[in-house]
Amino acid sequence: MLNCTKSFFGLRGCVSAARQILIPKISGRVFRFYARPEILAKPNILQTVGIYSDTNGKIPGWRSAVEMIWQRRNEEKMKNKLEQIREKAISQLNNCDTADKLNEIRVSILGKKGELTDLLKSMRDVPPQERPKVGQMVNETRAEIEKFLEERRTKIERAVREAKMAAEVIDVTLPAKKAELGHRHPDTIVLEEVERIFVGMGYEVVEGPEVEKDYYNFEALNIPADHPAKDEQDTFYITGDILLRTQTSGVQVHEMEKGKLPIRMIAPGRVFRSDEVDATHSPCFHQIEGLVIDRHITFADLKGTLAEFARELFGAETKVKFRPHHFPFTEPSAEMDVTCFKCGGKGCRFCKGSGWIEILGCGMVHPHVLEMSGIDPEEYTGFAFGVGLERITLLKYEIDDMRLLYENDIRFLKQF
Ligand code: DAH
């Protein structure tokens, strides 16, 4: 069966008596093709011919003939095209002086829609046997352009670097910029000192949540819903039941609920109250809670411990005094004063003439509070205390306005 595969227009051949078309002009050889029947009907007529091949490849030489025809006509064309692309690329690159332009040129030639890439795509029209050769030609051009591109890139980068260096002359005689170091906050210094003192006495340092349930902040500390102490500690409510804690005393409850006895802990942390800012008030400040629970703990343990604490913090000469007071979660309760470290107790402006300064609240843990947290008050007793961190910091460093502690002025902080 004969089957039409391709027409080569412009090739003129002559149909021989042997029903073949003779095309004499390809590489000086005569190629023989079988011709279409209507051509065969007019033998010896020179004309444009269409070439037939049989699908079974029964006509040897047809394939190579087609390829040679392609080769002759297109190899030159391809070479020229490649040469054109190469020359255009080189001249564009020679005139290019920025990295951006360089990239544009690269994309226009080697990019997805670049000229060379287009040419590579046209490879499908190249007969399979010619492809390696043509492919090699394209690749050689590509490699050449890439090499040129790289050289150009290096040149541009060097020029940019040199221009930058020329523009940024460094005056090595200028004084260096000082890196401003921060400073430990006086609150931090005092807190670390307090922790050191209590850890030295065998206490653990624990933390509790700042967002707290009403139960832990009030109820479990013997402050029921209608207790006046709740008014004194008005705070920020998140829901009717969840609030920003007004005191660190709730951490006592968390620790007791863990069920591990004995307890010797301090719990420093942030607390909140809806107070106006002034020299002695802030809506957010810090407390350090203390709790000891064991068998046979008495008020004497409380006094001894807190007296030792005061001596370590304010100096060996410091004396303490306990005044009766009321806290709902301790019984009995007291406030502890220390001798004024400015006048040694004689009385001065600092202690308002009394010789004493109040520093903390304390007391024996109320049996009801122990019970609510699952501890048997018949077997265990304990004491608790609460110190305002800012209060002792202001006292220790003789700072007369609490607001200074919150302004973070490095000139202020550096003094401690
Ligand atoms: N939570 C109290 C307050 O904020 C301070 C306090 C007093 C804590 C006596 C205690 C304590 O643990 O026993 O005013």
Unreliable spans:
1-19, 23-31, 39-67
How far is the N terminus from the C terminus? 107 Å
CATH secondary-structure class of the largest domain:
Alpha Beta
Global mean pLDDT: 83
In order across it, which strands form the biggest sheet?
Answer: 5-8-9-13-12-11-10
Radius of gyration: 49 Å
The biggest sheet, with number of strands, parallel, antiparallel or mixed sense and barrel status, is:
7 strands, mixed
Q: Can you list the ligands bound to this structure? A: 3,4-dihydroxyphenylalanine
H and E string: EEEHEHHHHHEEHHEHEEHEEEHEHH
CATH topology description of the largest domain: BirA Bifunctional Protein, domain 2
State the shape. elongated
What is the correct CATH architecture of the largest domain?
2-Layer Sandwich
Number of strands: 13
The number of distinct helices, counting runs of at least 4 residues, comes to 13
